[in-house]
Amino acid sequence: xxxxxxxxxxxxxxxxxxxxxxxxxxxxxxxxxxxxxxxxxxxxxxxxxxxxxxxxxxxxxxxxxxxxxxxxxxxxxxxxxxxxxxxxxxxxxxxxxxxxxxxxxxxxxxxxxxxxxxxxxxxxxxxxxxxxxxxxxxxxxxxxxxxxxxxxxxxxxxxxxxxxxxxxxxxxxxxxxxxxxxxxxxxxxxxxxxxxxxxxxxxxxxxxxxxxxxxxxxxxxxxxxxxxxxxxxxxxxxxxxxxxxxxxxxxxxxxxxxxxxxxxxxxxxxxxxxxxxxxxxxxxxxxxxxxxxxxxxxxxxxxxxxxxxxxxxxxxxxxxxxxxxxxxxxxxxxxxxxxxxxxxxxxxxxxxxxxxxxxxxxxxxxxxxxxxxxxxxxxxxxxxxxxxxxxxxxxxxxxxxxxxxxxxxxxxxxxxxxxxxxxxxxxxxxxxxxxxxxxxxxxxxxxx
Length: 448
Description:
A hairpin with a 4-residue loop joins strand 10 (341-344) and strand 11. The chain is built from 15 helices and 15 strands. By secondary structure, the protein is an alpha+beta fold. Belongs to the transposase IS21/IS408/IS1162 family. Pfam families: Mu-transpos_C_2. One of its GO terms (molecular function) is nucleic acid binding. Residues 132-330 form the Integrase catalytic domain.
C-alpha cells in the first residue's frame, strides 16, 4: 500500500522549519512524520527550500506529489477540511446530524469521502479543537466565586425544622486561598453580604471578580459581553474592581472555583456532617473554624500552605479597601426638571444637576449618605444626603451663568453696590451714591 502523502500545510511547515535551520530529527518530531519522509520531501522541494517567497500550492503539489491520484486525494482532503470548519459550527443545532452534514458535503463534492471516512476525519478534527489549557494566574488579578451545589443547614429552635443554607465559595487562584460563608439565599442582600465578607477576609480587592452567570450578578448572559446587574456595577465602583462572567456552558472557565467547591465538601461539609447547629451564626462559626484549618494545611509535597503563599506573595498586591463596606443603593429613573433639579419623592427634596441636562432621563442612585446622578453611565452630580431642612440642595457650578450672577449678588450692601458702580466709571459712581442717599431701602436685586 502506498504511503499517504502529507498535507499541504505540513509541506509549508517543512519548508519554513528548513529555512529556520531546524534539524531533520526535530522537523520530523514537530510535523509528525518520519525522518525518511522529511528527507524525501526536502529532496523533492530542493529548488524551493531556499527561496525567500514560498511557492504557491500548485507548484508545491506538482513537485511533492508525483502521482495524479495523490494530487486528487490532497485536493479532496483540502475540500473536506474547509467543510469540517462549517460542520463543527452546525453540529450543535437542533435537528443537525452527521448524516445530514455528510449528505450536504456530497452535494457540493460528489467525489467526496464515504460516510465512514467522513466521520473519521470529523472525529479527528473535533479532537484537535477539544484541548485544555493549563492556566497561569497572575498575583492578585482575580477572585473566582460561586455557590456550592450542595447546601448546609441548621435547626430552627422555634419549629424544629431544618433551614437550608446556600454556601458561597471564593478562591484566589494564584495562592489558592479559599473563603466560604453560609447564607440564607442567593438574593441580592445575601450576595452583597458575601462580597463584603469575602473582601474583608482577603483584606483587599483584586482586578476582577469572576462569577458564574448568577441571576443576582448577571442580567443578560453573553459569551463575549455579559450585562451585569446594577448591584454589581455599584460594587465595582465602591471597591475599584470589575466583574466578569464565565462563558455560558463553559465549565473550564471556572475550573479553579469548581475545584474549591469539592475541597470545601471534603474539608468543611465532611467534618461537620454529624454536628447540629441552631442558628446561622453558629453554623458559620464552625465553617470558619474548618476553613482556617484548610487554609493552614500544607500543600501536598511542600511545607507551605495556602495562607503562607497568600501572605508572602499576594496579600500586598491587592487593592486597599475603602473605609466603609459597601451598602446597596436604591436606583430610580428620573427626568431633570426645568429648574435643573431632580426630585427624590422619598424625602421630598430636590438635588441639582448641570443645567445643560434639563429634560434628560437620568439614573439616580442614593442611600442614607449620598445621592449620585448618572447620564449615559457617567456621573454628572454628587450630593450629600443628610438631614437638613432645606427643600433644595443646589451646587453653584450646576447653575447657568446668569443664575450664578444672581446668587452672587444676593445680600449686597451699599458699599458693594458703590464698588461695582465705580468699576463702570466716576459718573456712574456719583449717580449711584445720590440714588442710594435718596433711597429708603436697598432692594437686594440686580439686573439679570
